[in-house]
Every structure is written in C-alpha cells, then in structure tokens.
Amino acid sequence: MAKTLKQDAYSFLGSQLEEIGSELVVGYDKDYGVIGIAKNKAQLKQVLKTKGIAGVIIADRESCAVGYDFIKGEQYFGMPERHGHISDYIDKEKVAVYGNGDTDKLVIENNDFMLKLMEFLDKNNISYNDSTYAPIRGHKYMYEITVYNGRCSTTISKNQTYMKTSTDVLIVHDSTRDVEFEFYAEFLCKVLNIDFNVAKQLIIDCYNAKGLYQ
Questions:
Q1: Beta bridge partners of 74
Q2: For 142, phi and psi rounded to 5 degrees?
Q3: What is the pLDDT of residue 111?
Q4: 23: confidence class by pLDDT, cuts 50, 70, 90
Q5: Measured on CA atoms in the order 192, 172, 11, 59, is the torsion positive or negative?
Q6: pTM of the entire structure?
Q7: pLDDT digits (tens, 9 = 90+) for 76-106
Q8: How far, in Å, CA of 75 to CA of 119, rounded?
Q9: Cα 3–chain centre separation
Q10: How many Å apart are CA 74 and CA 107, to the nearest integer?
Q11: What angle do CA 120, 89, 199 make, to 5 degrees?
Q12: Which keywords appear in this protein's UniProt record, sorted alphabetically (predicted)?
C-alpha cells in the first residue's frame, strides 16, 4: 500500500471530521471487522497506524460513503456489500447465536443486558432507537438498540455489535469475532461519547444484570 494513499486519507478524512463534527471514521481489517474509530484528526492518525488495517471509511455523503482501500490502493465511493445484504447477515447471526441452544434463556440474558444499557442511555440523555424481534420464530422477543453518529449507525445487542454506513455492514463483534474488553470499552466511549472508565463500568454492569426482564 502506497504511503501516499494513507496520507491522502488522513488529509481528506481529517478535514471531514473537522468540518462535520458528528461523523466517525471507521478503520477495518481485511475481513471487514472494525479495528479502530476516529472522531478527530489525532485519533485518525492512530487508526491509520493500527496493525492489520485494510481500509477506512466515513459516511459523510447523502448517497454513499467515502473510503480508502489500502489493499487495492484506491479511494472508493460506497463500499460493496462484503457481507451480503444486511438482512442476510442478520438472519445468519440469529441462527448462529440463538438457534443452537436454549433460545429463550439466551434472549432473557440479552434483554437483561439491553435493559441495563437502555437505563444508562436514558439517564444520560443519549439518543437511541430500540427495536424488538424474535430471533427464532415462536420464541421470546429480544431487544437491540441503534445509535447514530451522523450518517453512521451502530446496532448493539449482547452478542452482536455492528456498524452500518450507507452501503455495508462492518462487524465489531458477533458469533465469529471476539474483541478484547478494553477495545470494546474504547469503542463505546467514542460511539456513545462517554468517558472511557464509564464505558468499562457500563459493560461490566450490563453483563452482570439479572432479573430486569420479566
């Protein structure tokens, strides 16, 4: 990957972060898993230095996202669907997480986690959209939430977190991808605009939540 492409990415995306303010630049690896988030030029510089980075993207346009593919060595407008259609990806995850065990027990654990998270968001006036659906037909409904940073959305449940630009989904964690505690805390810190230590305690509280869902 030519060094100049990263320099171009830093210059263009950094200026977008300064001008727009509410957007995020997402760094991803060759499997389109999220490995870094930037809200300003200093953070972008660090993301671009992250080991294994394959590209960066920002959802800063009305019709498509702008990104840089460091493997192909090119700028692009609108990332092709790397995981297939978003609904296909979600359906696969439903089966992977909830289709091979005690579905209702797993849903209850998810909902305890999510109710604690929503309680925190409400208390701190952090905007989000919540939704419910049955991951497996005939079973209990599970909660998930979506938060927005400009035109980039992040959808969160206990067992899955993914980001969506205008064109595709990038995985933070799911049935095939684990992340370290510190990484996820840093991720929530930036997406929810909260202190890093608060994010760490929030994760602990959510995972320890029991009996909230009736």
A1: 69
A2: -110, 155
A3: 97
A4: confident
A5: negative
A6: 0.92
A7: 887 666 556 778 888 888 889 998 879 999 9
A8: 41
A9: 27
A10: 42
A11: 20
A12: Plasmid
